[in-house]
Each structure stands twice: as structure tokens, then as C-alpha cells.
Amino acid sequence: MTPITTTDALAEYCARVAKAPFIAVDTEFMRETTYWPKLCLIQAATPTDEAIIDPLADGLDLTPFLDLLRDPAIVKVFHAARQDTEIFVKLGAMPVPLFDTQVAAMAAGFGEQVAYDGLVRQMLRIDLDKGSRFTDWSRRPLSDAQLTYAIGDVTHLAALYPKLRDRLAREGRLDWVTAEMQGLVDPALYDTTPDNAWKRLKPKKFAAKYLAAFKATAVWREQAAQDRDQPRGRILKDEAIDEIATQAPTDVDGFNRLRSVPKGFGGSRLGLELIEELKRVLADPEAHAPKMDRPSHNNAAPPSVVELLKVLLKAKSDNAGVASKLIATVSDLEKIAVDDNAKVDALTGWRRQLFGEDALKLKRGEIALVLNGARVEVVEIE
């Protein structure tokens, strides 16, 4: 297959598939040494028409394809969509409506985060050749093996989607997946604003001085990573942010005593920048610390209750053929253990029907878990 390398050819392809009910999409990108992913290839396929698009081609304008992604009449099908979606959001095109076959597979009984090749093998009885998976997609020309691998990712995806969708519809679970997709197209998920970077991390303390330094370091790191187009971890590791917030160093010697920062960081250009930022916020920690509710020690989740909820979750997920991770997380269980009205997904919608109601009944002693052979069952208590 010859990749599309001109805007006219791309516009022609997009016009041909504009009336398709869905389009399967995949990308090949590189970001091991960069903050921003470098888009190297786009693969797209409907049931009758497929294409490989070369975004590195000189003069190629991706607008026709981005318009296709924005079209609400066409379902965009991905497997493990988040990183692909992040790339297109950066290009200004949120792919809505979206269908992620990895999430759908979790609802259809294929386990936790099933790999694409595993799903293709189980549903289409095809073994994929993954030999080109880790090749350098930025080098040109691309080999025939690379192109064959790349187009296979979407042609099989286009064949898999209707089967998976029909299976979920028969089992009454299509609405579950549709609801789950709303989270994947939430713009907040792809927010790279440096001021919000600290929210992805977990502060371990709640004193104003710690929080002011914690937020300032996370914000500084995000901005430095973006400005230099380097991965966050190459600037500072996550654990270094906690140590810096705890020790609050404001000079080179203070940084050189830290264990989690690179040797010599304090005297480097980056280190000196961060020292000045820490001096600024620590001059008035109360004004710069984010507002956070301090957890009450009285509300700590009882370990025994959490363990019981884990057993119930496993039983419910096994019996329903749904990946437990899709129903509730450990964090959800901890919150349910201390609060019947916890603001968690596990107590809303289909999750509440499948698991949440019985979780609350278990807490109230209205049901019990019994072992029937190798199977855990739920029984009502008279």
C-alpha cells in the first residue's frame, strides 16, 4: 500500500469515506525522548476502504482528516484510545463519538486491558505479526513490512468493531460502554496546562509549606518539560517532587543533599530556576498552597471491610464476565467502606446495579458471602 502524502489525495480519501457509519483509526508515534508525541503515521479503515496517511510528508495538510474525526455522524473506533486521542486533541480534533475496543472488551468478558492482538486472535481467529511494532516510524521510506503491519492494525479493527458492538448489544451492555466513552472524550483528561500539573500527583502532607513547594515544583517541572520538549521524568522524577516539598531546599547545598534529584542538579540552570521559584512561593506559603481537605484519621477505611468488598467485587465481576477494574477501583472500595454516599462511579448507573447495591448491603449485614465449591456466592441474610 502506498501512503497518502498529498493534501489532495487525503481530501479524496476523506470524501470517499465521509458517509461511512464508522472508521477505525490507529497511529504510530514516538515520544520516548520528547514531551510532545511525534506523530509519524495515521492508519484509517472503514469496512470497504483503508488508507495510510503520512503526516511527515512535506506540505501535507491534515485538515480533511481532522474534519472527519470531528464529524458527529461517524463513530471513531480505536483500541486503547487515550494516547491516540491525546495526539488528535493536540491537533484540535477531539474524535467524537469514540468507541474504544479495549474498554468494550473489558465489558464483554475478555479480561483486564486485553491487548489488541489477543482480542483479534479471540474474535477473528487471526494471529498478528507484531515484528514491526517497535521499529523507527519516523524514518523514510517505510518498508513494506512496516506498511503491512500498520494497515493490519485498522483493517482488523474495522472487522472486529461490529462483532464486539453486536455482542455487547445482545448482552445489554452497549450502554455501559457508551457511558464509559464520555470520560475518554473529556477535555480535562488531556489538559497539559502547567498550573494543573500537580493535580495528577498525590501529595503526602497537608501543611501549607509542603503544599506550596509541591505545587510550585510540579508546575515548574511541567513548564520546563514542555519548553524543552523532554519527558517529565528527564527533568525530575515524581518522587523528587515529594522530597523537594518535604525538605524545601532554597540553595544549591540544600538540593545537593537530596537523594532523588540528579547529582549536580542544584547548581545547574534548571536547578537554579527551581530554587528561585521555591524562594518565591515559600516567602508566603499560605498564599501559594492549593486548598485541599485534610483527610480525617477517623475516616480511614477499615481494612477488613475493604477486603470483604474486594471479594464481593471479584465474585460479581466473575459471575457477570466483566473486568473488575471496569466496575470499581481499590480507591472506590476504600471510599465505600467509610461512606455509603461516596462520590464514586461504583455507586452510580449500571455499576451500582451490578455491584454497588450489594456492596452497601454487605456493609449493613444484609447479605453474606459463602463459598460453594470454588465459587463465591452472595446470599441474603434472613
UniProtKB/TrEMBL annotation:
It is found in: Cytoplasm. It catalyses: Exonucleolytic cleavage that removes extra residues from the 3'-terminus of tRNA to produce 5'-mononucleotides. One of its GO terms (cellular component) is cytoplasm. Its main location: cytoplasm. It is an enzyme of class 3 (hydrolase). It comes from the Bacteria. Its EC number is 3.1.13.5. GO terms for biological process: tRNA 3'-end processing. Its cofactor is a divalent metal cation. PROSITE patterns: HRDC. The keyword Iron-sulfur does not apply. Belongs to the RNase D family. Exonuclease involved in the 3' processing of various precursor tRNAs. Initiates hydrolysis at the 3'-terminus of an RNA molecule and releases 5'-mononucleotides. This is Ribonuclease D. The lineage of its organism: Bacteria, Pseudomonadati, Pseudomonadota, Alphaproteobacteria, Caulobacterales. The gene is rnd.
